[in-house]
Design brief:
Elements: H1 24-90, H2 92-119, H3 125-132, H4 134-139
Helix pairs in contact: 1-2, 1-3
């Protein structure tokens, strides 16, 4: 006679491992929701970068405007003084031409400095980089983004 040993259990019958099956509709809903979140985050990133770039552009533009106004006022009075002083030596007509040429050179230097400041505006580099990675992420090729 064979004896069967009783099974020792905790009082609950063992449950088989249940594998959760999800429909295509559920999976597409998840993808759509994730894509929507991703696009919202990209828009927020773009807004933040635009604020930063606009601040830099405003700073450069304000510096150019301030330099123009201050330069105009100071140079107006200095020009008149230089014109009169040179007029005693070479005549009023020629002294006016010399003063005008000097201020044209100064204006060109200020314009070049302002243009250099405006070229430092970066635009949206991080947004452009992350948006370019979206197609690979959608295809499941995230490793291509590294």
């Amino acid at each position: 006679m064979t004896e069967h040993s009783p099974l020792i259990t905790s009082g609950t019958p063992p449950t088989p491992a249940v594998r959760e099956e999800r429909s295509i509709g559920d999976l597409m809903g998840d993808v759509t929701r994730d894509l929507s979140v991703l696009l919202r985050q990209e828009v927020e990133l773009a807004k933040a970068e635009l604020r930063e770039s606009a601040g830099q552009a405003g700073k450069g533009g304000g510096m150019l405007a301030g330099a123009g106004v201050a330069g105009f006022l100071a140079l107006m009075f200095l020009s008149v003084a230089a014109w009169w002083a040179l007029g005693l030596v070479i005549g009023n007509g020629w002294s006016g031409l010399v003063v005008a040429i000097v201020w044209a050179v100064v204006a060109a230097a200020l314009a070049a400095a302002g243009r250099t400041e405006l070229t430092r505006v970066r635009g949206l580099p991080t947004t452009a980089d992350t948006v370019s990675k979206i197609p690979n992420a959608l295809k499941g090729n995230e490793e291509d983004n590294r």
